[in-house]
Every structure is written in C-alpha cells, then in structure tokens.
Amino acid sequence: MEKKVKRIGVLTSGGDAPGMNAAVRAVVRASIARGIGCIGIRRGWNGLITSDFVPLTSSSVSHIINKGGTMLYTARSLEFMEEAGRAKALATCRLLGLDGIVAIGGDGTFRGALAISRQAAKDGMDLRVVGIPATIDNDIGCSHYTIGFDSACNTAIECIDKLRDTMQSHERCSVVEVMGRHAGYLALYVGISVGATAVLIPEREPDFEKDIVEKIRRARLAGTTHYMVVVAEGAGSAIEISQRIHDELGIDPRVTVLGHIQRGGSPTARDRETASRMGYEAVKVLAEGTGNQIIGIQNGLLTDIEMEEALAMTKPFQMDRYQILEALTNSCGPDF
Length: 336
Hints:
Layout: E1 7-12, H1 20-33, E2 37-41, H2 44-50, E3 53-56, H3 83-96, E4 100-105, H4 107-122, E5 128-133, H5 149-170, E6 173-178, H6 185-194, E7 198-200, H7 208-221, E8 227-232, H8 238-249, E9 254-257, H9 269-287, E10 293-298, E11 301-306, H10 307-312, H11 319-330
Parallel strand pairs: 1-2, 1-4, 4-5, 5-10, 6-8, 6-9, 7-8
Antiparallel strand pairs: 2-3, 10-11
C-alpha cells in the first residue's frame, strides 16, 4: 500500500532567479488542493540543519507571483555537504514529519537533494525529493529551459538598450559583462537580441583579432561609430578585453558589469507560467508516490526524469545561434 503524503517541505537554494516565488506559490497551493500540508524551509538546505522553517498557507503566498528574489531566502551550505550536516537536516525532517521535499534551484541544489535522499534511505527513512530547475544561466542538462532565464535576458537587454543611447551620443565602444561563468546562453541570447557587434562565450575559444578587432573595423568602414561587445563572465574579463580594444584600435571603450542586477526584478510572463506549471507538477509527482525526480522541459513539454539520470545528462550548446549572430553582423554590419 502506498504511503499517503501528508506534509512536504519546499526550499530555494543557490543563486536566486526571478520566478522562484511563483514556483513556491504553486507548490504551496497545489499541495493545499490535494490536502497536503506545506512547510517553507528558509535559507536553503542550511534551513533544515538549523530548523529554520515556517508553515505556509494559501494566504502566505498571496501577491508573490510578481516578485523577484525568493520569500524563503537562499543560501549555500558547506555543512550540508558533510554527512553529519545531512544527519541534522534529516532530524529536522523527522521532527516536522516531512514525507517529501521540493527543492528549487540549480545543479548544486539537486545534488544536495540526491545526497539527502540517499542518506535517508540508508537510515530507513522514506523521504522523497523533487527538483525544480531555476537558474538564470539556463545550464541544467535535463531541461531545455530553466526558471529565471527569460527575466534575466530581458533585464540585460533593457540595460544595454539604455547604454546604446549614450554610446551613440558619444560615438563610443561599450563592453558589457553579463552573467554566465560556465555557460554562454545568456550572453548569446542577449547579444542576438540587441544586435551586438561581438559576443564572447565560454563555449568557444575567442580569436581576438577575428572576433572583435575585425568586426569593429568592418563596422567602422560601414559607417558605424559606436560598438557593443557582450562578454559572458566565464569568457574573460570585460576590463581586460576593453584594454586590448584600446591598445589595438586606439578607441576608448567603456565597461559595464551588469552583475547581480540580472537576478532581480519582476519575472516575465514566461517565467511565471513555467514556474507555476513546474510547481504543480512537482507536487503531483510526490502525491502519486514518485520521488527522486527532476521536473524539466523537453521540446516544450513538462517531463519528470529520475534524478541520477537527470544529473548525468549534458546540454549541448546551440552553436547554430552563434552562426546566426555571425551572419547578421557580418553581412550588413551591427546595429550599434
């Protein structure tokens, strides 16, 4: 006979992403609709170690679907990486009577979920975990889309559109660094959307002469007097790239590091809707007796994938988008 799920916990971990609140809201309300109690674990996995929790009701999550950040806060926990730390976390799960946990975050969050699930099984405890991918980098292998990516892109695009005005007025080159330590999805998507002169991503070793210097020269010969270079943080330092542009072309670039502004702000419709669907699906998976799954999107459809299998999956970078960028800037000159 299947064990009835009576109470689940929900937490957000790792870097925050717009839409996390929408996912929390969906988990809470989908749980209530099924007669399941819901406990909010604050400050990620560390909240389970320190018993930092709050009971959540339908009214607790009212008016948060449009807010960035996460009402449950987020943190990274070194202690949780150790078996002793996870033992403390499991003690909190027993105290609260949790049958399952919905973990909202990225790859590190999911590895933590798998680790506590394995330790619970070893201790003879039936604790099911489900992950919801939320990261602005869009770099989760098992899901074509992650909550927060669209919002972060729109924030970066809005900032660069404003930079365009002043760069055009002063006939300058702008080097903009966007987030993406290990993945260039954000930089490439934004670069295409703003008509950048050049984009540098960690997935592709740059040829400085070909990828930047020649593109700026070609743009100048086409009559352009202002230029935009978008750099993923994992592809190099915007300050160093700016200095090389100055040394090789004699122009005076301005550097803008967008930083954590990309994480904030009201989530877009896409992120609110995706988060709501994923939150609902996570509760459904737990209620139906399945555990150790990650909710993902494959070819536009929701899917749940066994966690170990999901974490082993890799995400091939869509280099065809880089080819599109090349074609659109090389044929007619950039928009800057």
